[in-house]
Amino acid sequence: MRYDVAVIGGGPSGAVAARELAKAGVSTILVERNLDNVKPCGGAIPLGLIEEFNIPAELIEKKLSRMRARSPKGRIIEMRMPNGYVGMVRREKFDSYLRSEAEKAGAVIVEALVSSIKPSGSGFVINTLNNKVAPFEAHRIIGADGANSKTADELHFPPNELKVIAMQQRFKYTPAIQKFSDIVEIWFDGEVSPDFYGWIFPKADHLAIGTGTEDNRHNIKALQKRFIEKIGITDKPYLDEAAKIPMKPRKSFTAEKSILIGDAAGLVTPANGEGIFFAMRSGKLGALAMIEHLKKNAPLKSYEDEFRKLYAPIFFGLEVLQAVYYRNDRLRESFVAICADNDVQQITFDSYLYKKMVPAPWSTQMKIFSKNIYHMIKGC
Ligand SMILES: Cc1cc2nc3c(=O)[nH]c(=O)nc-3n(C[C@H](O)[C@H](O)[C@H](O)COP(=O)(O)OP(=O)(O)OC[C@H]3O[C@@H](n4cnc5c(N)ncnc54)[C@H](O)[C@@H]3O)c2cc1C
Questions:
Q1: Phi, psi (5° rounding) for residue 234?
Q2: Pair 176, 224 in one domain
Q3: Residue 44 domain flag
Q4: Pair 21, 95 in one domain
Q5: In angstroms, how far is the first alpha carbon of the chain from the final one?
Q6: What are 81-103's pLDDT values in tens digits?
């Protein structure tokens, strides 16, 4: 069997790409190793994504417009989003919905683990573990197989450099934790995470609580245990999950006949570890470039150029924020103090909800700059 495009991996990036390709009449196969996969994930998505991809209301378990930031000393800043909300989804349902949309558009969806991708003629031949699916050919490849992408290895893309290991536990609501059920809580606290942050995300029937740290630098299980103790939870979780988050785009994620999208390309923003939006946007942009490539022989590189043009400033801004404020508890304390400023909250939420960097007026920028200096010197 021969397809125009094989999409490897059926998370949000792969499902969106397969749907766009199939919609344009490109013969597409999507290979997912486990169609019942429960991707470890907080499942927080911005309003802009929900609107752009017409995510059905029943998939949004919670719409949260309040967020609490907690400092190392226990200072709490409550922030409000007057113009939007963070949507909470459950990945097992979300991913399966996105794949069903791809299938409806005409993509072939199969369950198998891709074990090798070899050049063959003008395209590739793809093998799956134990020949679960008979070897097949594809003219072009889209690697959407996550942080440890087999596609990237097989096709010799530059490495995914910076990885955070994140752990999350799910707790069914009990009267003791019901108080967290309608607010997003973020802990900036070196005891919970010395170089990232801890989160409490409420879902319909459970809380998802997790933390992250740079790969191999700290013991993630010990950090998570301390976090749960600090919150004061004594119940047992009903699910433990952990996975890597690649928080730096690869040096290049396009080649002559293949591209990487989503986590496979390293498209998760530093500081907040947000990846679903970028997975779906890269899936869409990558598929559109692939369609132009197949129809008009346009170079695939246009996808990477477009992605970087749109989002490089956001990645850069968050990288600086993480490098400056996540270094120690003194700086984290200052960071939380700065979050009390209404202008800081507005800029943060405007750029989060729609991923647009809207420059604030000079007077506001100067005020925020002065507050930054003040809090950094004072250490709170
Ligand atoms: C604990 C944790 C919490 C997170 N919380 C959030 C959050 O709240 N909000 C947010 O925006 N982001 C969050 N992220 C990041 C987010 O989960 C990812 O950025 C997002 O899932 C990327 O989507 P993707 O489609 O690129 O990759 P993935 O979702 O990882 O999908 C890759 C798919 O490829 C399949 N696959 C892998 N190898 C093969 C193979 N060889 N053959 C066939 N199939 C294969 C996998 O089974 C998987 O389904 C979190 C990540 C973690 C680890």
A1: -110, -15
A2: yes
A3: no
A4: yes
A5: 63
A6: 888 999 999 999 999 999 999 99
Alpha-carbon radius of gyration of the chain: 21
Q: How many CA atoms lie within 13 A of 9 on its CB side?
A: 29
pLDDT in tens, 37-96: 999 999 999 999 999 999 999 999 999 999 999 999 999 999 998 889 999 999 999 999
What is the spatial distance between Cα 232 and Cα 223, in angstroms, rounded to a whole number? 14
Kindly state if the Cβ of 276 falls inside 6 Å of ligand 1.
yes
Total-model pTM: 0.95
Residues 307 and 285 sit within 8 Å (Cβ to Cβ)? yes
Helix (H) or strand (E) holding 210: strand 206-214
137 plus 14 within the same structural domain = yes
DSSP state string for 54-86: T--GGG--EEE-EEEEE-TT--EEEEE-TT--E
Write the CA distances from 247 to 158, 254, 264, integer angstroms: 14, 18, 11
Tell how far the Cα of 173 is from the centroid of ligand 1, in angstroms: 25
Residue 50, in any domain of the structure: no
Residue 42 CB-half CA count within 13 A: 28
Task: Report the separation in Å between the CA atom of 113 and the middle of ligand 1, taken as the mean of its atom positions.
Answer: 15
**Cβ–Cβ under 8 Å, residues 151 and 117:** yes
114 falls within a domain = yes
Point out the ligand 1 atom lying closest to the alpha carbon of residue 243. Answer: 53
Q: What interhelical angle do 329-338 and 301-325 show, nearest 10?
A: 110
Total tally of structural domains belonging to the chain: 3
- Considering the domain boundaries, does residue 52 fall inside one? no
Query: Residue 230: which domain range?
Result: 60-89+162-246
